[in-house]
Design goal:
By secondary structure, this protein is of the alpha/beta class. It has two domains: 332 residues, no CATH class; 102 residues, Transcription Regulator spoIIAA. It is built from 20 helices and seven strands. A five-stranded mixed beta sheet has the order 3-4-5-6-7. It has a two-stranded antiparallel sheet with strand order 1-2. Helix 3 runs antiparallel to helix 10 and helix 4 packs across helix 5.
Length: 486
């Protein structure tokens, strides 16, 4: 009960105001995404209501806003075009089922393997894509640019007067008033698609329940599941870092799955966590579960109760809000730090950004960036240095990482024919990572022993010594001495 009060009632004013701002920002995004998917805008409204409410109740990351997202719409566009909207509903339900299964098997634990440069690339590419996607709303005539500039100025300057009212709401209200008073003919929400006052109804997708249908929707469901999990969990991770609070990634994965199942049965499209709206939520004080629930509830109720007014809201006013969100989403500090961090980290971040922006698919960028990080790590871990010191006996100083990638270089670095009675191999500055590393040490010891050279191993950490004792096959031949401690 204590946790319930904290997450739902601990920040009522901040969550409600943030939820209102998020709701206003969701409208053009969701409707635009539905146009991309080739379905009625109300499909996105129904989906957003279901997804925000379910994830607010069951999600593992308070403050995360999930809704009908652009990445999911892009994946489903070809399915809708080739087979129709009923197959889209079926694919959405199957996506949810797969995500629940993934969450049950704790796939969220894999998030820790995504490197920091990939996270920076993910955030920066999102900001860039959001910015680019809004530019079309400022084109056409000069009045659009002027109105957009007014909106952006209000958002930035109004907080200097007071922060009690979120500046995006003030900006949207002012621009809408200007357009209505002066009867300016520009694109409004009503021009983006049909809006109705009908409530969502429980439906069963009208598709044949057979293997052929499964073969059609399964590839889409797998792709949607992966994209949705990646976007949602990376957004959750970002909120964790910004708020210095933990989240349950596996619980969030299951909640995303439940939300998509409900969305599909109520005529909605698949959705996932949305970084832009989540950042907007945090920026205006949203910290609890109430903010997401408020945004989704307002999304549906505004269409039912105030559709006559909502259709008159200028799209450019909402685009101005998203421009500001995009600029604040980009991690500018990551660009400033490029001269300080390793070149490999910069290449990973830039590659992630380029792939995401060029493909409009966050999953591609994250996977590519992570694989590139693995390659760079492999290259770094393949470097081991063996320095021979001849001072009161022969000592080989080892530095670097000894693993499968560096074992060959390690073995070839010793002089096995040298006329000495004993040598010391110092492992103080090296780490043994795997069986290949132990095998390399084995081979060196055995070769030296065959030539009558007694071997001392010093500087092994307790973990490395334990690994050597467990996996070594030399069984401590007479010419070997392992000296514990550094």
């Amino acid at each position: 009960m204590k946790e319930f009060k904290r997450e739902w009632l601990g920040n009522i004013k901040g969550d409600v105001l943030a939820g209102i701002v998020v709701f206003m920002a969701l409208i053009p995004e969701v409707m635009g995404f539905m146009i991309v998917a080739g379905v009625d805008p109300m499909v996105g409204v129904y989906a957003t209501f279901c997804i925000t409410l379910i994830t607010a109740i069951f999600g593992g990351r308070p403050g995360l806003v999930s809704a009908a997202a652009g990445a999911m719409a892009l994946v489903l566009a070809s399915l809708v075009r080739d087979y129709g909207i009923e197959y889209m509903f079926a694919a959405t339900i199957l996506t949810g089922i797969l995500q629940v299964i993934f969450g049950y098997f704790k796939i969220g634990n894999l998030l820790k393997f995504i490197p920091k440069p990939v996270m920076h690339g993910f955030v920066n590419s999102l900001g860039i894509m959001m910015f680019i996607s809004q530019l079309e709303h400022f084109r056409g005539n000069s009045i659009l640019f002027v109105l957009g500039a007014i909106g952006i100025m209000i958002i930035y300057l109004f907080p200097k007067l007071t922060k009690k009212i979120p500046s995006p709401i003030v900006a949207i209200t002012c621009i809408t008033t200007i357009v209505l008073v002066f009867n300016i003919d520009i694109k409004t929400l009503g021009d983006m698609g049909r809006m109705t006052s009908e409530l969502p109804e429980l439906i069963i997708p009208s598709v044949p329940f057979n293997l052929e249908t499964l073969s059609i929707i399964f590839p889409y469901a797998v792709s949607l599941s992966i994209v949705g999990i990646v976007e949602s969990l990376l957004t959750a991770q970002l909120i964790d870092e910004m708020t210095n609070t933990p989240s349950d990634k596996n619980r969030e994965t299951i909640a995303q799955g439940l939300a998509n199942i409900v969305s599909g049965f109520f005529g909605g499209i698949a959705g996932c966590g949305m970084i832009g709206q989540s950042m907007l939520n945090l920026s205006y004080g949203g910290r609890g579960r109430l903010a997401s629930a408020v945004a989704g509830t307002l999304m549906l109720s505004s269409m039912i109760l105030f559709s006559d007014f909502m259709v008159k809201v200028p799209v450019v006013s909402l685009a101005a809000v998203m421009v500001v969100v995009s600029l604040t989403t980009i991690n500018w500090q990551s660009f400033k730090r490029m001269k300080c961090v390793p070149l490999s980290d910069n290449l990973v971040m830039i590659t992630t950004v380029i792939i995401v922006v060029s493909t409009h698919n966050l999953a591609y960028g994250v996977v590519a960036g992570t694989l590139l990080s693995v390659i760079f790590f492999g290259i770094k871990s393949s470097k081991v240095h063996v320095d021979k010191i001849d001072h009161n006996g022969i000592v080989y100083m080892i530095t670097g990482q000894l693993s499968f990638a560096s074992s060959s270089d390690f073995i070839q670095s010793f002089d096995y024919q040298e006329k000495v009675e004993e040598v010391t191999i110092d492992f103080t500055h090296v780490r043994l990572w795997d069986e290949s590393a132990v095998d390399a040490v084995d081979k060196v010891v055995i070769r030296l022993h065959k030539n009558g050279i007694k071997t001392h191993l010093i500087g092994l950490s307790p973990a490395c010594e334990a690994l050597l004792e467990k996996c070594a096959i030399h069984n401590k031949p007479g010419g070997l001495e392992v000296i514990s401690g550094h």
